[in-house]
Amino acid sequence: AASAPRPLPSSGPKSLREMPHPLATSSSEEMGPALTPSPDLLLPRSIADKDLSLPNGTPVDTSSPASSSSLLNRLQLDDDLDVETRDLFVTVDDPKKHVCTMETYITYRVTTKTTRAEFDLPEYSVRRRYQDFDWLRNKLEESQPTHLIPPLPEKFVVKGVVDRFSEEFVETRRKALDKFLKRITDHPVLSFNEHFNVFLTAKDLNAYKKQGMALLSKMGESVKYVTGGYKLRSRPLEFAAIGDYLDTFSLKLGTIDRIAQRIIKEQLEYLVELREYGPVYSTWGGLEVELSEPLEGVSACIGNCCTALEELSEDMTEDFLPVLREYILYAESMKNVLKKRDQVQAEYEAKLEAVALKREDRPKVPTDVEKCQDRVECFNADLKADMERWQNNKRQDFRQLLMGMADKNIQYYEKVCVT
Amino acid sequence: MEDCLAKKMEITVSEAEKRTGRNAMNIQETYTAYLIETRAVESQSEGQCAPVESLWRRYSEFELLRNYLSVTYPHIVVPPLPEKRADFVWHKLSADNMDPDFVERRRIGLENFLLRVASHPVLCLDKIFYAFLMQEGGWKEMVNETGFQLKADSRLKALNATFRVKNPDKRFTELKHYSDELQSVISHLLRVRARVADRLYGVYKVHGNYGRVFSEWSAIEKEMGDGLQSAGHHMDVYAASIDDILEEEEHYADQLKEYLFYAEALRAVCRKHELMQYDLEMAAQDLTSKKQQCEELATGTVRTFSLKGMTSKLFGQETPEQREAKIKVLEEQIQEGEEQLKSKNLEGRDFVKSAWADIERFKEQKNHDLKEALISYAVMQISMCKKGIQVWTNAKECFSKM
Known about the structure:
heterodimer; A: mainly alpha; PX Domain; 3-stranded antiparallel sheet; extended; disordered N terminus; B: mainly alpha; Substrate Binding Domain Of Dnak, Chain:A, Domain 2; PX_dom_sf (chain A)
């Protein structure tokens, strides 16, 4: 049966004052030389340089640019939550390539720092690959079907089109996986999920997975909803509205995605022409005596413009587009959840009807009906709560995303101006 | 420069008008006429202005003027006319001669041409030029009466000279080479610039789509709605801004084009030199062979093989009287030839001197103008970027209020 949402633990988490600062220990923060984590696209670079301290005065280790920006990222994420109550921090970083006889794949380091009682140790560091994240997500969907589970970056990549091991691809994926875990961490229910706990802590996840499969068949942990057979009478207005909203939302995001791609394409074509344009001034400069300096100057400027433009396009591709796509995926999975909710309601209504017809089965059916009713109400409540949270986060995400886009464009123009 | 016309007179090509009329072949045609306005610049500044004189001219008359000037002053780098047909266009601009933007740019080009001629120390004194500005009727006849078309060198002759000349002045050869390269590099530049403009246009315009979709999206949002909507508006502004930006850039392209055509004028001066030099070489050669002939006849020895020599050997010698007559004719010719050679030499040297003086003047003008053009181009680019920064900063502000 679906578990009722547990209240946030009121005792247990130490105040931020007492807790060892998550980033104070420098040992686990070494970054691979080849892949430096990019500061979150949301932040102006200047903050990374200043001397920072947490609101309560604890000095922050700013030796590596990543640490201060990711710290601020975390703080920004819980705009709504009281800083004092944050007791779980999760990061995904340090991608590494593993070459085995059977296959080649990438693992990411998942670092956890927490004061929660549910965890035996205050710190964990494990290695996970995409498969493991996928597994986690499925488990969450199964065990918390009434909640909105954040999306994962796309699973399948067409070989030959995208290089699975290219720096850009790996980095984009890492960011998405990091966001995935952070969203779960933020969720008052999902973050206490058993599978999530194991995912963060187990040295050997595969053993647990196998064990879980066996347990599954025995204990029927997941609640399976029958997908067929029940027709919904009337959908409550609010959920209908959410459904409509999600449809339009995905549509609009899809359009924006296409526009952004088109812009990048046009920019690249512009870049091609620009690359030919600059050298012609150089050639001309070679012909002239007095004018050769200014002409060379123009040529160099155009060269700089090319570089700046390249950076802009790259940033858009790496930071902007993936977030759009992620939200589209999010909307998709939300719609699925809505469908499930509909199913549950339908089942409930059908059973209710059945009860109305068969008046003898009173003792048995009511519990059944009650159960259904329970489910429906849980579902609705969970969904509503999740939607609100999602809306909030989405708003913030987009705000930062679009601001980031604007910023990038501004930076581009500023660079061009300077040259 | 104190005496040049430009200082004494204000010249503008102020208007352009579409006209229809019958041409030489009595066929109805549409053409554009340009209004040339002139006003004498008074030395006293009392607010007393001389009256404005004006007349209408069409492009073909400008062409006639320029042809006249090129032929009459072959040692001068004659300013070029704006292009006859729109070239190096990017897709948005039409190549239509009747297009108002094209006409406008041509008007500016024609005014520029007149000002250049009027500021040239030699050309501004020309009577035909003055009449072009002041006398509407009968000007064409006046030009044709100068018979300048007869003085024009045939293209074929000039081409021939280019290949056959043996000792042209090295500076001219270099200059010709330079003008070839200049022409090639500027046309390449203009072609690429047109493509660049095209692409840039595309980039800006696609951003306009953001405006629409943001607007649509804002309709379904609660808190994000206002921010999205106003940001969308800024995207529209951004997309629209490219039109003005590119129009300004056309002016820069026109400045480059002027020098592209100037390269042709430079080449013409070089060709003239080659032609004169070739003429000189031919005349010298002719003189040498005549002298040789004379000598042969006088001494009776045949130095070089000649058909005449052979036939005279075969068919009998000429009489001493005949020989004397021939020698006399030759001596006259030789004398003529020597005088001609002397004057040609003098002409050649004069030409080289005055041509080179004008070329130096031209070089200075070119360096000055192009430097200014590049600077204004850079300024344009900076202003474009500033606008970009403005728009995106505004958009960012809208986003931050979401």
